[in-house]
Specification:
Strand 9 and strand 10 form a beta hairpin. The strands form 7 sheets. Strands 1-24-23-22-21 form a 5-stranded antiparallel sheet, with no helix packed on it. Strands 2-27-26-25 form a 4-stranded antiparallel sheet, with no helix packed on it. Strands 3-4-5-6 form a 4-stranded antiparallel sheet, with no helix packed on it. It starts with a strand and ends in a 12-residue tail after the last strand. It has one domain: Neuraminidase (6 Propeller), CATH 2.120.10. The protein is mainly beta and about 300 residues long. It is built from no helices and 27 strands.
Length: about 300
């Protein structure tokens, strides 16, 4: 694989001849990666396979949950409890290290959520998650009627409570991430092939909607290479899935180029001891490559 640069700035973030290493293959559709900061392992999802897997440097890949409620996006809170978006149950759940499970979101105003997809945690403990319809598609979830007539993004207040609807006019909201200082929230819209950015207010709501990047592929599922998972690095650059691999944008929205991946990519996450490895679930396989920049420090990383 190679790096296709549209700006020389990309080579400040990743080597021109970076090695993209395959860590495992033979899966159905990989997604939802998250790195554990003290146990040094990667969890990742396989929704159609209804399984969650773990990768370690020493042990390779093993199954850790089957069935998994066709889980998708995952992250940790500041206490290293695992937060999981489940397609089959249309829920967000918290899994504690001792095995307890707590359901923290299932409905909005009495109607079942579509299928929580991706999830992040702000430094104040509030939880943000996207709720597209993909978990009601055959294979990726359980085919069933929708109760909500929109696709939204929600916030759960610190300490819990009912989901607060932040925005409801997406085609399908998908990956989301904060800027390094949490003043901006990026949310991508898969069928519209773009990333929107919002200002984050003191109360956690979002305002000032504008487009950050557009024309990231076609948005058509059957053509692959969709804008899907997304992460921000410590300098404010955005790394997002797209046609050909991982697209990289500067904080100003300049497209710096693409790190090519052999398969269509579903998501990505930073990990490793110094948070400078990008782990990339891509269709049937799991890959990684080294970067010259580290992750934006999220609460669980501290």
């Amino acid at each position: 694989m190679s790096v296709t640069a549209t700006s020389s700035k990309l080579y400040e973030l990743v080597d021109e001849d970076v090695e993209v290493e395959q860590l495992g293959t033979g899966f159905t559709f990989t997604e939802g990666p998250i790195w554990h900061p003290t146990e040094h392992h990667l969890l990742f999802s396989d929704m159609p396979g209804d399984v969650r897997r773990k990768w370690t440097e020493a042990g390779g890949i093993e199954e850790v949950m089957r069935p998994s409620n066709k889980c998708n996006g995952m992250t940790y809170d500041a206490d290293l409890n695992l937060l999981v978006c489940e397609h089959s149950t249309s829920s967000v759940v918290r899994e504690y290290p001792d095995g307890r499970r707590e359901t923290i979101a299932t409905h909005y105003q009495g109607k079942e959520l579509n299928s929580p997809n991706d999830i992040i945690v702000k430094s104040d403990g509030s939880i943000y998650f996207s709720d597209p319809g993909y978990g009601r598609f055959p294979g990726f979830g359980v085919e069933r009627p929708y109760e909500l007539d929109f696709r939204g993004v929600y916030r759960i207040p610190p300490g819990g409570g009912d989901p607060q609807l932040l925005v409801d006019d997406f085609g399908e909201p998908n990956g989301l991430c904060f800027s390094p200082d949490e003043s901006l929230l990026y949310i991508n819209d898969t069928p519209n092939a773009l990333i929107r950015v919002f200002d984050v207010e003191e109360d956690g709501t979002i305002t000032g909607d504008r487009n950050f990047a557009q024309n990231i592929g076609t948005g058509e599922l059957e053509k692959g290479g969709l804008v899907d998972g997304m992460k921000c690095d410590e300098l404010g650059n955005i790394w997002v899935t797209g046609p050909g691999g991982i697209w990289v944008f500067s904080p100003e929205g300049e497209h710096l180029g693409v790190v090519e991946i052999p398969e269509s990519v579903g998501n990505l996450t930073f990990g490793g001891a110094d948070w400078d490895w990008l782990f990339v679930p891509a269709t049937t396989s799991l890959y990684r490559f080294r970067t010259k920049v580290a992750a934006r420090r999220e609460p669980y990383m501290r």
